[in-house]
């Protein structure tokens, strides 16, 4: 008989089981608790899931604004004379081509072209970039960037512990953020960033922040990178202004339904190391003509030349039952794909989902079904996103 796990047959001493590390707390944890937040363990962090109602928070973001704590995200600074070249070699895009003050969505891929993470890169200066990674992937991103930057005169530093990140999203976001910062928001277009001073209260010294007009909800909005020591003051000021404009604090639950409506992929669902950028509809961010080639370039070139067997699509359902991640997509009773994310859309009032389906069945208007515990629910393939804000 095999020895029980954890026991050495040569010794009567049982090795104690490893105790999982408790989730990390953001600098704003006490503020969330005071607001009555319900918490969840997400990517090793204790994060606010909701404050009152998922539905109310979702609608507030669509109609006015929501304020989110995103301090679990990773911030990685890449600097030095060859910082741009190092990032070109590390990522599937071409960060060196960005102007100062611009941001770009991009991908870090492995040697097989699989997606290690999707991230946003901000160009802060001629020799300075900030890469923002998903919370669950900070360590592999830091390791990969450092390894790939080694042949260049560039330095990679994990600054996650130095920063808190607060996002204000929604149609009222400019009216909320504008009076609190010295930046000209009319000149700060989508996917741009600028240093700014944030006012936190009468007589209080201004807080130096990085202000970015990016987001993950489908709405206009801003992300404020603030030093950890100033996080609570910045949050309080932004929360007060958000409430003045009819907004609310918002948790991860509504953030998920917001991004799903906007057709934005979530790492671990739509994107994994087993996912090709081309199957995910992200071929636009991949540059295949770079020299020298980055890690994974040859694999990406092969993938680009071969139509993917399955591609990511949107699915629109009927009724009130929503497809969920992992449910099979079927046609004529046979599996033809799998749901990656799904929910009853609060904004649209019907079920929506993203799924990988056979490429031959990916055209909008195609009738399919989702197998929900033995019951086939009809769905229709639709173009992404499900929701697009009025501009």
From TrEMBL:
Gene3D superfamilies given in the database record: Aminomethyltransferase beta-barrel domains (3.30.70.1400), Aminomethyltransferase fragment (4.10.1250.10), Probable tRNA modification gtpase trme, domain 1 (3.30.1360.120)
GO biological process: glycine decarboxylation via glycine cleavage system
Binding, substrate: 223
Biased composition (Basic and acidic residues): 1-11
Entry-linked InterPro entries: GcvT, GcvT/YgfZ/DmdA, GcvT/YgfZ_C, GcvT_bac, GcvT_C, GCVT_N, TrmE/GcvT-like
Sequence segments annotated as region (Disordered): 1-25
Cited PANTHER family: AMINOMETHYLTRANSFERASE, AMINOMETHYLTRANSFERASE, MITOCHONDRIAL
Domain Aminomethyltransferase C-terminal: 310-387
Domain (GCVT N-terminal): residue spans on this chain: 29-290
Keyword Transferase: yes
Enzyme nomenclature, EC number: 2.1.2.10
GO cellular component: cytosol; glycine cleavage complex
Reactions the enzyme catalyzes: N(6)-[(R)-S(8)-aminomethyldihydrolipoyl]-L-lysyl-[protein] + (6S)-5,6,7,8-tetrahydrofolate = N(6)-[(R)-dihydrolipoyl]-L-lysyl-[protein] + (6R)-5,10-methylene-5,6,7,8-tetrahydrofolate + NH4(+)
Subunit structure of this chain's protein: The glycine cleavage system is composed of four proteins: P, T, L and H.
Domain of life: Bacteria
Keywords: Aminotransferase, Transferase
Biological function: The glycine cleavage system catalyzes the degradation of glycine.
A Pfam entry, by short name: GCV_T_C
Enzyme class: transferase
Entry's Gene Ontology molecular function annotations: aminomethyltransferase activity; transaminase activity
Species annotation: Kineococcus radiotolerans (strain ATCC BAA-149 / DSM 14245 / SRS30216)
Keyword Transferase attributed: yes
Official protein name in the record: Aminomethyltransferase
Family to which this protein belongs: Belongs to the GcvT family.
């Amino acid at each position: 008989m095999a020895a029980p796990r954890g026991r050495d047959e040569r010794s009567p001493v049982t090795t104690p089981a490893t105790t999982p590390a408790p989730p990390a707390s953001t600098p704003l944890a006490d503020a969330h608790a005071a607001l009555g937040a319900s918490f969840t363990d997400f990517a090793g962090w204790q994060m606010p899931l909701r404050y009152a109602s998922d539905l109310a928070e979702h609608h507030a973001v669509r109609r006015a604004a929501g304020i989110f704590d995103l301090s679990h995200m990773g911030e990685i600074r890449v600097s030095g004379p060859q910082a741009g070249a190092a990032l070109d070699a590390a990522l599937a895009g071409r960060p060196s081509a960005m102007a100062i003050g611009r941001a770009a969505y991009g991908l870090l891929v492995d040697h097989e072209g699989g997606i290690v993470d999707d991230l946003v890169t901000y160009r802060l200066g001629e020799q300075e970039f900030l890469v923002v990674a998903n919370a669950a992937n900070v360590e592999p991103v830091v390791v990969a960037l450092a390894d790939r930057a080694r042949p260049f005169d560039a330095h990679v530093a994990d600054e996650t512990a130095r920063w808190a990140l607060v996002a204000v999203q929604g149609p009222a976001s400019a009216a909320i953020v504008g009076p609190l910062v010295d930046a000209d928001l009319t000149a700060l277009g989508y996917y741009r960033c600028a240093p700014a001073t944030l006012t936190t209260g009468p007589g209080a010294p201004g807080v130096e922040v990085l202000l970015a007009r990016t987001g993950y909800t489908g709405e206009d909005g801003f992300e404020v990178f603030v030093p950890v020591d100033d996080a609570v003051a910045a949050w309080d000021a932004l929360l007060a202004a958000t409430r003045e404009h009819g907004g609310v604090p918002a948790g991860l639950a509504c953030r998920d339904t917001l991004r799903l409506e906007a057709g934005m992929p979530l790492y671990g669902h739509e994107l994994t190391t087993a996912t090709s950028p081309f199957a995910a509809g992200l071929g636009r961010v991949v540059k295949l003509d770079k020299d020298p080639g980055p890690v994974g370039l040859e694999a990406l070139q092969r993938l680009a030349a071969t139509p993917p067997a399955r591609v990511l699509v949107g699915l629109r359902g009927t009724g009130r039952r929503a497809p969920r991640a992992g449910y099979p997509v079927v046609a004529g009773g046979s599996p033809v794909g799998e749901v990656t994310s799904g929910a009853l859309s609060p904004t649209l009032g019907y079920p929506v989902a993203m799924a990988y389906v056979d490429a031959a069945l990916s055209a909008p208007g195609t009738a399919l079904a989702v197998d929900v515990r033995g019951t086939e629910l009809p769905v229709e393939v639709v173009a992404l996103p499900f929701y697009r804000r009025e501009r």
